[in-house]
Amino acid sequence: MTGIAIMGAGRMAKVHAAAIAGAGARVAAIYDPVTAAAEALAAQTGGQVCASPEQAMALADVDAIMIATSSDTHVSLLAQAVATAKPVLCEKPLAASYEESRAFIASVGEAAARKVFLGFNRRFDRGHASVREGVHAGAIGRLEQLVITSRDPSPPPLDYVPRSGGLFRDMMIHDFDMARSITRQEIASVTAHGSAIIDPRVGELGDVDTASVTMVTTEGVIVTILNSRRCAFGFDQRIEAFGETGMLLSDNPRQSGFTTYSAASPGTAAPILEFFMERYGPSYSAEIRLFLDCAREGRDMPVNAIDGHMAACLAEAATASLKTGQTIRLTGPDQDFAEILHAAQ
Amino acid sequence: MTGIAIMGAGRMAKVHAAAIAGAGARVAAIYDPVTAAAEALAAQTGGQVCASPEQAMALADVDAIMIATSSDTHVSLLAQAVATAKPVLCEKPLAASYEESRAFIASVGEAAARKVFLGFNRRFDRGHASVREGVHAGAIGRLEQLVITSRDPSPPPLDYVPRSGGLFRDMMIHDFDMARSITRQEIASVTAHGSAIIDPRVGELGDVDTASVTMVTTEGVIVTILNSRRCAFGFDQRIEAFGETGMLLSDNPRQSGFTTYSAASPGTAAPILEFFMERYGPSYSAEIRLFLDCAREGRDMPVNAIDGHMAACLAEAATASLKTGQTIRLTGPDQDFAEILHAAQ
Amino acid sequence: MTGIAIMGAGRMAKVHAAAIAGAGARVAAIYDPVTAAAEALAAQTGGQVCASPEQAMALADVDAIMIATSSDTHVSLLAQAVATAKPVLCEKPLAASYEESRAFIASVGEAAARKVFLGFNRRFDRGHASVREGVHAGAIGRLEQLVITSRDPSPPPLDYVPRSGGLFRDMMIHDFDMARSITRQEIASVTAHGSAIIDPRVGELGDVDTASVTMVTTEGVIVTILNSRRCAFGFDQRIEAFGETGMLLSDNPRQSGFTTYSAASPGTAAPILEFFMERYGPSYSAEIRLFLDCAREGRDMPVNAIDGHMAACLAEAATASLKTGQTIRLTGPDQDFAEILHAAQ
Amino acid sequence: MTGIAIMGAGRMAKVHAAAIAGAGARVAAIYDPVTAAAEALAAQTGGQVCASPEQAMALADVDAIMIATSSDTHVSLLAQAVATAKPVLCEKPLAASYEESRAFIASVGEAAARKVFLGFNRRFDRGHASVREGVHAGAIGRLEQLVITSRDPSPPPLDYVPRSGGLFRDMMIHDFDMARSITRQEIASVTAHGSAIIDPRVGELGDVDTASVTMVTTEGVIVTILNSRRCAFGFDQRIEAFGETGMLLSDNPRQSGFTTYSAASPGTAAPILEFFMERYGPSYSAEIRLFLDCAREGRDMPVNAIDGHMAACLAEAATASLKTGQTIRLTGPDQDFAEILHAAQ
C-alpha cells in the first residue's frame, strides 16, 4: 500500500488524510511544527510523527509526499520534496506570492515543475469535470463564452482579510485555473471589477468581497468569473460553457431529489450542498487517485506547478486591474506578465 | 372563413367561441334556450342568434356545428347535427349516461360515429401530446406502465356532486380517454379504489373525492390513474409512460422560468399553471384547427364518438368496480361490457 | 373601445396590431409610406389607411398613437405625436443614434419625455418581471450582482450588420434597459469586451457577434451582460439577480413539461421557446395594457423616452469602451456622458 | 470501538462491513460456512474468523450482531442472537417465508421482536427520509395518496426467479415497508396486478416482472406501488406523497448538476444514480449508526422484526391477490391475515 508523508496536520492535512484512505493509500509519516497536531493526526491515521520534513520525506516506506501546510512554507517544502525525487502533491496555492511562485518555477525548471501535482481539486468535481471533458470532446463545437460562478456560503473572519492576499489570490485562484483548464487557451487580457458591498470594512482593508473578472483568450473566447464571499443558500459553484452548437452547465448539486409543493412553495428543491466538504469532498479522493496513478506511470502531472503559477499570474493581473482600473493585457505592452507567461508555457 | 354554429352560450360555449376565433374561423350562429345568453355571446362574436338548433344548423353560412350545451342535450343535438351532414364537434361527454351513449352509437352506426369529433381537448395539450406521439413513435420501445395523474385545484360545490354522475364519469373520463389514446390497446380489466377523504359529505352522497384506478390492457400494460378533487398547489396534470427503453413524462408546466433561492427556500420554482384555461386554453384552439382540417378533408375524426363511448364504458366499469369491490373484466365474464366494447371497436 | 393609430405596417407594426387586439383596443388608423403594406394591415385590423402621419394622428377616433416604423423616423414622428397631446407608444429604440436621442430629449424636455411610452417589451416578460419585482420588494435584500444573458437563435443577415449600429446599440439595448430597471441605480462605469467569433466577416465590418459588458453602479452593484448572436438551442434569455439573502433567476421557459428519459438521455427537457414571438409575444399585450392604463390615468409612463435615452447612452458607452479598450466612467472624466446622464435623470 | 459479529461473508455482508467502518464501529468476528469467504472478509476488516455462529456471537469483544446470510437462515440465527441478549440487526427479509416469519414473531414475542433491527435500509435514503419526516411533521396536512415507484436497472438472472419467492416478496417488500413507515396506518386492503411483459419466460415460471399494487389504509389513504424489473435509465426510485396542503416528492438524485443543451437535446440532465450502492450506499451507514445508537440507549428499534413481518404479510397478500384476481381485505373476511396482523400490531 502506497505510503504518503503529509507535511502539516491542520485542516487541509486532515482533508487529505481522509482522501488518502479513501484512495486506498495510507499515511506513513506526518510532520507539523505543532507536535500535538501531528500526534493527533497520527492517532487517527497510524502515520509516524517525524521531527522534520527531511526525516518524514526520507522514510523508506514513504512513496509520495503531500504538502498541506500554510501557503508561506509551500515553496521551501516543495524544493525539499523535489530533491527527494519522490512524487509530490502540493495543496494550492503554489506559493505565498506571485514573485515566490515565479522564482520557484525558475529554480526547478519547467520539466520538474510539471512533475509537481498542484491541488486544484475542483477540477475533479464531477459536474465541473463533465463540462471540461465535454468542451474538450467538442460537445459544443467551438467554445465562445465561459461563465464561472463561485460564491462561498459566508465571508472569512475580518482578521483573515489582510493576510489573505486579497480575493483574487485567495478565492478566485480556483476559477482562474478552471478557466485555463476548460479553455486550454492563453489569456490575452484581464479586467477586474470589485466591490466591498457585503462588508465595507473589507474595503477599508483594501480588499473586495464581490468581484467580476472578464478575460479574453487569444482566440477570442470571453471568460467571465463571478465571485462573492457570501451566499445565503449555500455553496454556489456553477460553470456555463457556451459554444457554437450548444451549452454545457455544471449546476449546483442538491442534497437529495426531495421537492416540496404547496400553495406558498410550488416546487421547492432540497438544499444545495452547503459546505465545502459536502460539495468537494469526493473531488479530493479523485485527486489523490489521479496523483498516484500518474506517479506510478511517471507521467507529467495533469495539473502541476506550471498551472499553479499561471493561476497566480492571472490573480496578479486581476489585482493590478482592479487597482489601476485598466485592462491588463498579457501578451502586449504589460511586458512583465507576458514574459512570465511565455516563459512558463 | 369557415362559419360555425354553436349550440349553447354558457361557459364551455364561450371557451369554444374564443378558440374558434383563435383558429381563424368565425361564429356564424348561436342557439341557446336562454336568449339573453345567446345574445351576449352574439355581441362578442358577431354570430346570429337563432330560435332553434334546426335554424342555426341550417343557415347557409354555417359550415360546421359545435355542441357545447349541457350533457343531457348532447345526443339529441348530435342526432340533429348528424342529419345535416355538416361536420360536428361535440363537447365531452358524448352523453349524459352510458346507456344513452350506447344507444346513440347503435342508432347512428359506427361509420357516422367516427365522423363526430368528440372534444377530449386534453389530447391536444402540448406536453401530453408529446407523450402520446413519443409512445406511438416507439421512443420508449414497448409500453409497459402508464401513470396518469389528474388533480383539480379545488372541489366543485357540494350540490354538484349528486348530478355529476360521480368522479369516474365526471372527472376521470378525460383520463380514460387519455389512457386509450396513448396505449391504443383494448382494456381487459378495471379496478377502482376511492375515498371521500377531502370531504366526508361527498361520501354520504355516495361519491368519492380521491381515487385510483388500475387497468390492464389485453397486452399486459398496467395503467394507473390517480385523481383528486383538490390540489393545494394548482392544476396537477401529469402523465408518465414507462417502456422497455425509457420513460416519457409530461410534467406540470410553470407560469415562467422564475426561481427563487434563499436560505429557507433553496430553489423554489414559479407556480404551476393554476387554472383550467391557463393550462388547457391553447389545447382548445389546437382542437378546433384539427377538427376543421379533418372536416375539410372528409376524414374520420381522430377523436370521435366511438372514443366518447369507450371512455364512458370505462367510467361505468370503474363505478361498478368501486361499488362491488371487484375487478371488472371487460373481455371475460362481464358480458355486457364486453359486448358493448366489441361492438364499438 | 380605445382607437390607436399605428405608424408603420411592417413586422413590428403587425406584432403591435395583434397585441392591440389582445389588449381589448382597436387599430383605428394606419400610415405607412408603402400604401400596399398599410392596406394589408388595414384589411386585417379594420383600421383606416391614412395618407400622412398627421392625418392618422388627428382622426377623431384615434385616442392614442403607436410608432412602429423604422428607427430613423422615430424622433420626427415622436415630435408630431407629442404635439397632438395624445398618448404615444414608440417602439424601441428611441432614435437612430445617440445624438438624435439626446436632441429629442432636449427638445421636448424631461416632463414630456416621461409621457412617451418606450417599447422595451422585455420588461413585461413574466419571468423577467418577477425578478425585477422581487428585487424591488427586497426578496434578496440588498442587490449585489446582476447577470443578464441574451442570446438570439441565429445571426441577422450579414448585410444588416453595417446598418445595425453595432451589437451594443442594436441588440444589447434591451439588456441595458433591463439592468437599469432592475437596479434602479445610476451606472458609474461601462467596460465592454467582444469578439467576432461566430463569423469573422462581422469583425471585418467593424462589429462583434459575441460580447460581454460589465457595469458597476454608483452603489457598487456589478452588472454583467452576455450577448451572442447565435444560440443553437433557441432563444436564450436569462436573468440572475444575486443579493444578500438569496438569488432570483429568470430561466428560459420551455415549450411544455415534457421530458424524455432513456439510457442515452436520462432526462431531456422539452425545447426552450425558440422564436421571438413565442417567448415575448405575451409581453407585447401586457405592454399595451399598461400603456393604455397609464394614458387613461394621465401618469408618467413607467418606461419612457428618458429610459430610451439612458439605454442609448449605455450602448454608446459600451461601443466606445470596445473601441478604446478602456472602461468608460459615466460620472467622472468622461464629461460628455456624465452631462447627458445627469441632465436626463 | 463497538465490535460487531457478522454472520455471512457474501455480498450483503461486504456492504455491511463497509457501512460498519463508515459508522465508526469495527467488525470483530465473522462466521460463514464457506471459510474462504469468511477469511477474505476478515483480511479486509480485521475481524476474527469463527467456526460457528455461537462462537462468533459469544466473543467478549462482540457488542452487537449482524445477520447478513441467505434468507433461509435468518430466523434460526435470529433465535440464537436474541438468546445472547446482544443487540442484533438482521438484513431483510426477516424470514424465507411468511409462515416462518409468523412463527418467529410468535416464538420470541412482540417485545423481543421490537428489539431486533430489521434492515430496511431505504428508510434511511436522504430523499425518502425527507418525505417520511415531512408527512409525519404535517408538511402536507392529512395524507391522501401515496405513490411509490421502484424500478431496478435490469432483471435478475432467469434462474433466480423460482427461488426469489416472486416479485412481491423479493422486490416489493421494500416498498411495503416504505408505505407502512410513511402512512403509519394499518392497511385495509391489497390489490395486485402484474405482467410478465419484459420477459414472457418469467410468466412461464409463475412470476411477473412488472407490477402495480393498490392498498387502502383504514383511514382511506390510497397507496400505489409500481415495480419493474428493468429500467433503461438507471435505478428509478421515487416517492410521491400527496396531502391536503401539498405534495412531497423524492425524485431520483443525479450523478451531478451537469446539463447539456444543444439543438437536439435542449437540456439533458446528468444520469440518475445507476447502481444499488451508488444510490443506497449512504443509507447503510446511516442505518448502522441508528442501530448502534438505539442499542446503546436500550430503545426499541425504529424498524424491527414486527415491521419485517408486516411487510411479509403485505407481500403475501399481494401474491394472493395476483393469484386470485381478488382484492385481499386484511381486516375483514380474510381472517387469516387479519389475525396475524392484529396479533402483530
Structure description:
The structure is a homotetramer of 345-residue chains. With 345 residues, chain A is of the alpha/beta class. The first copy, chain A, folds into 2 domains: 144 residues, Rossmann fold; 189 residues, Dihydrodipicolinate Reductase, domain 2, CATH 3.30.360. Chain A is 41% helix and 24% strand. Chain A has 13 helices and 15 strands. In chain A, the strands form 3 sheets. Chain A has a 7-stranded mixed sheet with strand order 12-11-7-10-9-8-15. The longest helix of chain A has 22 residues. The C terminus of chain A is likely disordered. Chains in contact: A-B, A-C, A-D, B-C, B-D, C-D. Chains A and C meet through strand 7, strand 8, strand 9 and strand 10 of A and strand 7, strand 8, strand 9 and strand 10 of C.
CATH architecture of the largest domain in chain A: 2-Layer Sandwich
The spatial strand order of the largest sheet of chain A comes to 12-11-7-10-9-8-15
C-alpha geometry of chain A: globular
User: Would you identify the CATH H-level superfamily of the largest domain in chain A?
Assistant: Dihydrodipicolinate Reductase, domain 2
Structural class determined from secondary elements of chain A = alpha/beta
The two chains with the largest interface, and their residue counts, are: A-C, 39 and 39 residues
Q: What is the subunit arrangement here?
A: homotetramer
CATH fold label of the largest domain in chain A: Dihydrodipicolinate Reductase, domain 2
> Into which percentage range does the β-strand content of chain A fall?
15-25%
- Biggest sheet of chain A: strands, sense, closure? 7 strands, mixed
> Considering DSSP H and I runs of 4 or more, what fraction of the residues of chain A is helical?
40-55%
Number of helices of chain A: 13
